[in-house]
Write a structure and sequence with these properties.
The chain is an alpha/beta fold. It contains eleven helices and eight strands.
């Protein structure tokens, strides 16, 4: 059974080996964190790990960032909804028709299967991209402005929120109000390695800026004691 209030921290299980992912998940408590399943684990192991996590009461964020023609994305979102995930995402850059098709598919499939409708979140600008990287792809907006533009499109299409850097969380919260979910990767506790993230923020700063959910991977999964690392972050967030 799902817990009533989703935890703020979502642990990113970015492992190619499903046994490593499930081994770590077995050590975690669904009351302390949600779990993110991304492309690496899903391509390696398919949907079975997702079903295992859902059955054990975890709020699962299916982070596959669908971006294709509207029908393909709609069918993919319907399949994700049938897995019982709590949240899934699509690229906001896929355009209005794609976003609306995804929204409608999630709602219809949840109603047909009697499941709670998962949150549908739009991906704006990946946290690994800075202004120079965006320019190389033909986008001349700075990351903050481009995030706001894509977030407005996601909101207008009926999505529940967006994935964005916590650097933009305060401006996003101001622009879109309290009921638009902000999911923030690129979270690094003070002193942690930046890894491949270009725009990073500490958990406390992200929460203060208005982020609803903090996606945290290597600072937890790569720690000598992941359970202790998660507990320390939750304590810093006031959730001890």
């Amino acid at each position: 059974m799902k817990i009533a209030r989703p935890p703020r921290v979502i642990v990113a299980l970015d492992f190619a080996n499903p046994m490593r992912a499930l081994g770590l998940a077995e050590r975690l408590d669904p009351h302390d964190c949600g779990l993110k399943v991304g492309n690496e684990l899903f391509v390696s192991a398919g949907p079975d790990p997702v079903r295992w996590m859902v059955d054990r009461g975890f709020n699962v964020f299916l982070d596959l960032k669908f971006h294709d023609i509207p029908n393909t994305v709609a069918q993919s979102c319907a399949a994700g909804t049938r897995l019982g995930v709590w949240m899934l995402n699509v690229h906001a850059a896929g355009g209005r028709a794609m976003l609306k098709a995804a929204r409608d598919a999630v709602a219809a499939t949840a109603a047909e299967t009697g499941r709670t409708r998962p949150l549908l979140i739009g991906v704006t600008v990946l946290t690994s991209l800075d202004q120079m990287a965006l320019h190389e792809t033909g986008i001349d907006n700075d990351p903050g402005r481009h995030v706001l533009k894509l977030a407005a499109l996601a909101r207008d299409c009926g999505l529940d929120g967006v994935v964005c850097s916590a650097v933009e969380a305060a401006s996003m919260r101001s622009a879109f109000g309290p009921h638009f979910a902000l999911v923030t990767p690129g979270i690094r506790p003070a002193g942690a390695a930046r890894d491949d993230q270009a725009r990073i923020v500490t958990p406390e700063a992200a929460a203060e800026a208005g982020a609803d959910y903090l996606v945290i991977g290597r600072p937890i999964t790569g720690a000598s004691d992941p359970v202790e690392a998660l507990a320390a972050i939750n304590e810093a967030l006031g959730h001890s």
